[in-house]
Amino acid sequence: MSIFDLPKIDSHCHVLDPARFAYPPSVPYHPQGQEVGTADYFTHVMQAYGVRHALLVGPNSGYGEDNRCLLDAIARGQGRFKGVAVVPPDCSLSALQDLQAQGVVGMAFNSALHGLAHYSGIDGLLSRLQSLGMWAQFQVKGDQLASLLPRIRHSGVRVLIDHCGRPELADGPEAPGMLALLALAEGSDLVVKLSGFAKFSQTGFPFDDTSAHVQRLWQALGPERCIWASDWPYLRADHRLDYGVMLQLAARWFTPAQCQQMMWDTPAKLFNW
Q1: Cβ-Cβ contacts under 8 Å for 165 (sequence gap 6 or more)
Q2: CATH code for the part of the protein at 8-270
Q3: Residue 135 pairs with which residues in a beta bridge?
Q4: Contact present, 160 and 106 (Cβ < 8 Å)
Q5: How far apart, in whole angstroms, are the C-alpha atoms of residue 231 and residue 29?
Q6: What does the pLDDT read at residue 82?
Q7: I want to staple 189 with a disulfide (CB 3.0 to 4.6 A). Which of 130, 158, 226, 244 is the partner?
C-alpha cells in the first residue's frame, strides 16, 4: 500500500488567514505569500493526501497569543481539527477550560524562538494544564530541554516535543538536550513529533544527516511515543518544501506498518480521534 493510501493524522501544522484574521501589530513577524495557508485551503491539501485529521498549532509567527484563527478553523472543521493554542503564563484555569471545550488539547511553548527566559514564569500554567489533562508542547533547540527538565518533571504535565527536539546534530547522541529528552521519557507522559527536519538539518533536503537522530528517537521511544507531522505551510523555511515530498520522505525511512503507527494509530489514541 502506498503511503498516500494510508489514513493519516497530521500532528503539527498551522493555519493563517490574515484576510479574515489580521495579524496583531505587536507580533514582529508576519507570514506572507506561500507561508499563508487558510483552513479551507488546507482541507483541500488533506483530501489530496488522505489526511483525515490534523492538530493545528497556533503559530507564534503572525498570531502570537491571538487564537481566533485557530479556534475558527476548529469550529468550522466538522471534527477534522483539534488545536494547540498560545496563551500568556497567567492564563486562568477557567480560560483554559473554555479553550479545551472548543477543541484545544494543549498549549505551545516556543523557547527555540523566544528563549528560555521568556518562560521563566510558567510553573503555575504547567500545573493548571496538568490538572486538566492537557498537553504542554515545547519547541526547543540544542540543549534548552535540559534547562526546562526540572520544572516539567515537577509539574507532571503531559509533554509534546516538537520537531525531534531540534538537536545540534554535531553534538552527537550524548548531548545534554538528547539526554534530557530520554530522561524525561522515563516515567513521564512524553511524545515526540517526527517532523521539522529542515529546522535542524545542516545539509538540506532530503535531510540525510537527520536520519540517524530520527531513527534513534524511534528506537528509544517506540511507536506509542512517536507521531508524524508535516509542519505545513513551512513558516520561515529558507527553501521550498512540499507536503507530498515530506510524506515520501517518511516512506523512505519507515516501513508501511511503522507509518501506520505514527500517522494514525498513535495520534488517534493520544488526541481522541
Answers
A1: 140, 145, 177, 178, 181, 192, 217
A2: 3.20.20.140
A3: 106, 158
A4: yes
A5: 17
A6: 98
A7: 158
| Predicted model pTM | 0.97
Give the chain's residues under pLDDT 70: none
Confidence at residue 2, expressed as pLDDT on a 0 to 100 scale: 86
Q: Give a three-class secondary structure readout of 213-271.
A: HHHHHHHHHCCCCEEECCCCCCCCCCCCCCHHHHHHHHHHHCCHHHHHHHHHHHHHHHC
The long-range contacts involving 16-23, CB below 8 angstroms and separated by at least 24 positions, are 16/59, 16/62, 16/63, 16/69, 16/233, 17/69, 17/72, 18/62, 20/69, 20/72, 21/63, 21/66, 21/68, 21/69, 21/72, 23/62, 23/63, 23/66
Q: Which three cell numbers stand for residue 158?
A: 503531559
pLDDT of residue 60: 95
Residue 135: is it exposed, middle or buried by C-beta count within 10 angstroms (0-12/13-18/19+)? buried
Whether the CB-CB separation of 127 and 161 falls below 8 Å is answered with: no
Closest CA to 68 of 119, 128, 9, 18: 18
pLDDT given for residue 81 in this prediction = 98
Determine contact, residues 227/11, Cβ cutoff 8 Å.
Answer: yes
Pairing of β 158-161 and β 190-194? parallel
- The sheet carrying 226-228 orders its strands as 8-13, 51-57, 81-85, 104-110, 135-139, 158-161, 190-194, 226-228
Give CA separation, 168 vs 179, 210, 250, in Å. 13, 10, 21
